[in-house]
Specification:
7 helices; about 180 residues; 6 strands; 2 domains; alpha/beta; 6-stranded mixed barrel
C-alpha cells in the first residue's frame, strides 16, 4: 500500500519548488543530493507523475506566504504578587510556563512575553511594534516563554522585570496596542 504523499506538506512544497525551479525530471537525484531526504518511496511516487506535482503545487503554494502582522492588546507584568499571584519563596515563583527563570531579570535581560499558546506557540520569537509614541521604546524582538490566566486570544503581557515596578507603575503602563509578527515558530 502506498503512503499518501499529502501527509507531508512541507516535504511536498519543497519538492514542488525544486521541480519548478530546476525543471528536471530526475527527482531522485535532485532530492537525494540537494535536499538530503530519506523517504525514497514518496519521492519515487512523486517523480513518476508530473500531474501529481502540478496538483500539489496548486494546493500548497500558499504555505510559503509570509504571515501578516497581527494586532494585539498589550499589558505589562513583573514578578510581584499582584502580577503573578505568587509570593517570593513559594513553589514556581518566577518560573514561566515553559520553565524559564525570570528571577533577577530586567526587561532588557529577559525579553519575555506572556501569550496565548493557541495563537503564538511557546518558544516563538516575536517582533513587537507599538503604535503609540510613548511605547516605542518597547519595540523589539521578544520570546514567548510564558502564559497567563487572563492572556487569551490576541492579548499579551510584556515582562518588565523582577519586582522593579510597583503596582502603580504596572497600572500606569496600562493597556495599549501593538503589531505582532512571529518571526519564527
Amino acid at each position: 500500500m502506498r503512503k499518501n504523499p499529502l501527509k507531508h506538506k512541507k516535504l511536498f512544497v519543497t519538492l514542488i519548488s525544486v521541480f519548478i525551479l530546476i525543471n528536471s525530471t530526475n527527482a531522485n537525484q535532485i532530492i537525494n543530493e540537494d535536499i538530503n531526504i530519506k523517504t525514497k518511496k514518496e519521492i519515487n511516487y512523486l517523480g513518476s507523475d508530473a500531474n501529481v506535482l502540478k496538483e500539489l503545487r496548486k494546493q500548497y503554494i500558499v504555505v510559503d506566504k509570509k504571515p501578516e502582522p497581527m494586532e494585539f492588546t498589550v499589558t505589562a507584568y513583573d514578578l510581584s504578587f499582584n502580577s503573578c499571584q505568587k509570593s517570593k519563596g513559594t513553589e514556581g515563583y518566577g518560573i514561566t510556563s515553559s520553565g524559564y527563570d525570570l528571577r533577577g531579570h530586567t526587561l532588557a535581560s529577559a525579553m519575555v512575553i506572556s501569550v496565548d499558546p493557541e495563537i503564538i506557540p511557546l518558544g516563538s520569537k516575536v517582533r513587537l511594534t507599538f503604535k503609540e509614541d510613548k511605547y516605542k521604546r518597547y519595540d523589539n524582538i521578544y520570546t514567548a516563554y510564558d502564559t497567563g490566566g487572563k492572556i487569551i486570544g490576541k492579548r499579551l503581557d510584556l515582562f518588565v522585570g523582577d519586582n522593579v515596578w510597583s503596582k502603580n507603575k504596572i497600572k500606569d503602563f496600562g493597556v495599549t496596542e501593538c503589531e505582532v509578527e512571529i518571526i519564527n515558530d
